[in-house]
Every structure is written in C-alpha cells, then in structure tokens.
Amino acid sequence: MLSDELLKILACPKCKGHLDYIKDKEKLVCNGCRETYRIENDIPIMLIDEAEKF
Ligand SMILES: [Zn+2]
C-alpha cells in the first residue's frame, strides 16, 4: 500500500495532474488523460510508455 505522503507528491507524468489511487486494484488513475499506472511491490510505475488507457 502506498503512503499518504507518497500519494501527495505523485502526479501524472503526462499532464502533471492529480492521480486517484485504486487500492483494490493497486493502480493509479489519471482521469484527465484516462490512463492507469500500475503499482509493483509498492512502487508506482510512473512511465507514459507503461501506462494503460481505460
Ligand atoms: Zn494525466
């Protein structure tokens, strides 16, 4: 699980916007870009190339 401090500083690498943390899916979601970023071993993969559209 990600800490609140980490969540506060995380931003979408594409638009620098707010990310929503989907705890049960271990994903970060940018509603602006409609991209999801996965989290592996508590490390968010903040790479545009690794993002998935939804
Ligand atoms: Zn974005």
Concise overview:
With 54 residues, the protein is mainly beta. It is built from 1 helix and 5 strands; from the N terminus they run αβββββ. The structure holds zinc ion (ZN).
* Rg computed from alpha carbons, rounded to a whole number of angstroms: 10 Å
As for the number of domains, it is: 1
Count of helical regions: 1
- In sequence order, what are the helices and strands, one letter per element? HEEEEE
Distance between the termini: 22 Å
CATH fold call = N-terminal domain of TfIIb
CATH architecture designation: Single Sheet
Secondary structure: helix percent: 10-25%
Secondary-structure content class: mainly beta
Backbone shape = globular
Main sheet summary: 5 strands, antiparallel
Low-confidence stretches: none
**Annotation, overall tally of beta strands:** 5
The unique ligands bound to this protein are:
zinc ion
Mean pLDDT rating: 96
Main CATH class: Mainly Beta
